Amino acid sequence: MSKVILNNLNKIFEIKAGTDVKAVNNFNLNLEEGEILALLGSSGCGKTTTLRMIAGFETITSGEIKISGKLVNDLKPAERNVAMAFEGYALYPPLTVRDNIAFSLMKEKISKNEVDSKVKEVSELLEITDILERYPPSISGGQQQRVSLARALVRDSDALLLDEPMSQLEPQLRAVLRARVKDYIQHNNKTVIFVTHDQTEAVALADKIAVMEEGDLKQLASPYDISSKPSNVFVASFIGEPPMNILKAKVLKTETHLTFEILNDKDEKNFSIKYSNNELNKENLNKIANEQIITLGIRPHKINFNKETTNLEGKAESSTYHWLGDQVHIGIEIGGSSIISVADRNFQPSSDIKMHFPSESINAFNRDSEEVIFNGI
Amino acid sequence: MKFNIWSILKIFAYAAIILFFLFPIAWILNMSFMTNDEILRKVPVLFYEPTLKNYIGIWEGEISIPGFATMYIYFKQNLINSAILSSFSVALTLVLGVPAAYAFARYKFKGGEDIAFTLLSFRFAPALLIIIPLNLYFTQIGLYDSYIALIWVYQLITLPLLLWIVRGYFEDISPDIEYAYRLDGHSWFQSFWKISIPLAKPGIAAASLLCFIYAWNNFVFALILGSSAIQPVTVGALAFITASAIPYGLIACGIVVSVLPTLILALFIQKYLVQGLSLGAIKG
């Protein structure tokens, strides 16, 4: 059963008379019961506004929001039965941590014992049992954030809205809690929408990721599809660490070969990548048959340095070298273009790198619409 | 050695400050226990026999000063008037001002800033500017010489003060705290009553006290807009000065008695006052 449905949701802020800002533009979403959705995007892309519209703190300009089959457009926040963890924590300063968590259960008619056991369970989950008697101003930001998360998790709500729920936690704790919170959410069959700008968090927690940019929903898909099959240039250049190399390319077709000529700003050739037709997917070849100039995306992780043969026509020179502990990010200059690649620690910087671009590393996008033509030929 | 010199200097500095601020008060307090003769003696005496005559006089409404006729004083009624006017003014200001301050802090509405500034401008417009027209209006609509008229006009003093102080407090409270409470199934009004007001309490308490003091100390509105029946202590004190005598002891006693209520109130609210003024003044 669909738990949360957004239909053509719009939010327009009128800054001054005449100057409108579209914060959310025709957002459509269908979330099943028990699903976890991540709203992913950079600051100001409209993800928090979307969340606040679902909670009822932001009026909606047009469109529909349904929660548990009920149209909630005109319902007050109190009537929507959603729980939320705020980015700024929003704890009640005069109450202890325990009371802050229990406070949200006040309206639900349950016994004191049950409240106690619920608070106990969720505070053990988030490792805040030792600060239950403290007051919010006296605990650290990371602890306050966990209390705020606990307060939202403990409630029995139709939808759980989390705004940057783990942004203030230390990396180790974050990794541990991510797994635990996901378990808890799945075990209790909660429907969750959370906002984040951290793709690792989105991939680790979510069943579905919605990538947003300037109010537009750019792609809504599973974490795997988002990272391996980006549907447009924005998602391709946003997802991944490092993200895809985006280049302008001219497509040259012969009976036997397909060649991508990489162009610079002045449409001069920098280098080219050549494939024999029989190593490529026929369907994708047909898709590209009528294209002249495309936007080419190359996955940094998939570039191969250990292969004997090369399909690169041009001289590749390594320019930068970032050792990140378990992998190396290498900046490579090829005939005036620069691309980023990922290699293992055995990589040797050199002025003549041997490299191979496997066909699955190549993504093609329409030059004008920026929509995907294929992900990996 | 150095430490000792500094600490001695510090004690002197404190003493000077205390003397500067408290001496006039101590002097007045001292005078209130003296008879007129003792006060007016050419060589002041340090030791005298304190008398409660002035206090009893104010309580009973009449006092006979040797060498003059018996004076009748209405100061007790003035005190009651002051209490009525100040408390009701502050109460009305709270009822009107706290929700208004909340609205100005939370909601952006058309002309909102202009209204807030207009209210503030009441504080720096001289009272004399409006007092004659007000007098005429109040006479016409039959409000002249009534508590209601004065409480109404006192809003010019107290409302802007409370509004601007309390607004700063509401702005400092994260709206998300109210949202969180509302999400838990409570109405807007409940979140205002149970969350916003308690969190802004130090500011509201401090602002109320200031309002009370300003209302209590007001002179000119009460002088022009009311007769002796509703006049507060500030105007009532004028009656001590008569053609036949200036009873300094009685005046001093009147001052002591009229300062007491605000002093007691301040002591009660002190806890909030320090916290309140220091928080709001910086961030508001």
Short description, anyone?
Chain A has 377 residues and is α+β, with helices and mostly antiparallel strands.
Walk me through this protein's architecture.
Chain A is an alpha+beta fold and 377 residues long. Chain A folds into 2 domains: 237 residues, P-loop containing nucleotide triphosphate hydrolases (Rossmann fold, 3-Layer(aba) Sandwich); 131 residues, no CATH class. Chain A has 9 helices and 20 strands. Chain A is elongated and about 75 Å long. Chain B folds into 2 domains: 71 residues, no CATH class; 184 residues, Orthogonal Bundle (MetI-like fold), CATH 1.10.3720. The C terminus of chain B is likely disordered. Helix content of chain B is 74%, strand content 2%. A two-stranded antiparallel sheet of chain B has the order 1-2. Chain B has 13 helices and 2 strands. At the A-B interface, strand 6 of A face helix 8 and helix 9 of B.
State the order of secondary-structure elements of chain A, H for helix, E for strand: EEEHEEEHHHEHEHEEHHEEEHEEEEEEE
Structure class of chain A: alpha+beta
Provide the succession of SSEs of chain B: HHHEEHHHHHHHHHH
Beta-strand portion of chain B reads under 5%
> What class, by secondary structure content of chain B?
mainly alpha
Tell me, briefly, the overall form of chain A: elongated
CATH class (first level) name of the largest domain in chain A: Alpha Beta
Rg of chain A (C-alpha, Å) = 25 Å
Oligomer: heterodimer
Q: What is the CATH topology descriptor of the largest domain in chain B?
A: MetI-like fold
CATH topology label of the largest domain in chain A? Rossmann fold
Largest sheet of chain A: 7 strands, antiparallel
Q: Which residue ranges of chain B are poorly predicted, with pLDDT under 50 across at least 5 consecutive positions?
A: 279-284
Separation, N- and C-terminal Cα atoms of chain B: 44 Å
CATH superfamily of the largest domain in chain A: P-loop containing nucleotide triphosphate hydrolases
**Low-pLDDT segments, ≥5 res of chain A:** none
Kindly give the count of domains of chain A. 2
**CATH class categorisation of the largest domain in chain B:** Mainly Alpha
How much helical structure, as a percent, in the residues of chain B?
over 70%
